[in-house]
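*** Backbone structure tokens ***
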Amino acid sequence: MHASRPFEDRSAGLCRTAQNRNGAGSLPVPARPARARGSNQGDFPVADAPQTLTLTLDSGDVTIRLRPDLAPKHVERITTLANDGFYDGVVFHRVIDGFMAQGGDPTGTGTSGSKLPNLPAEFSREPHVRGVCSMARTMDPNSANSQFFICFDDATFLDGQYTVWGQVTEGMEHVDALPKGEPPRNPGKIVKARVA
């Protein structure tokens, strides 16, 4: 996939045109109750799913409360990728002061994602405010895959157009400390990511 990212320019479009290497098109979100996958337990209701993602950054831990009530499929994807070690060693390739920090691309370029299929959008009315975690995507609303961003400040112009899946509850100072740039000269990285 090409650049999967929200725009900083608040008057322009919110994503750059791109085509996902996994193909386009996704099915609508099913009406049946959402279920998450457990590593050895099979499927379990989202209400019973692990609720906390810990990102260990170079400067310390960031604790994120997962929001399966808003985005069950995205929480399932983040959980799967984190617990499979996908995010370990991945950099924040786009960090814009006063806007957001974006990571989740294994190439560190903002042009790729996981080998899993793209996700259907799970947009909500949840506002993009400081500490909100949301999925990056292309112009296609159903193109979220593995890249995500954490808001430094209010970015409500993104509301209803990007899938919110979590909220930083501790360690936002470590996100604030990430080196800035597009890309940063020496990007900060996720040392380890795990859901518990």
The two ends are 29 Å apart (CA to CA). Confidence is low (pLDDT under 50) at residues 7-44. The longest helix spans residues 72-83.
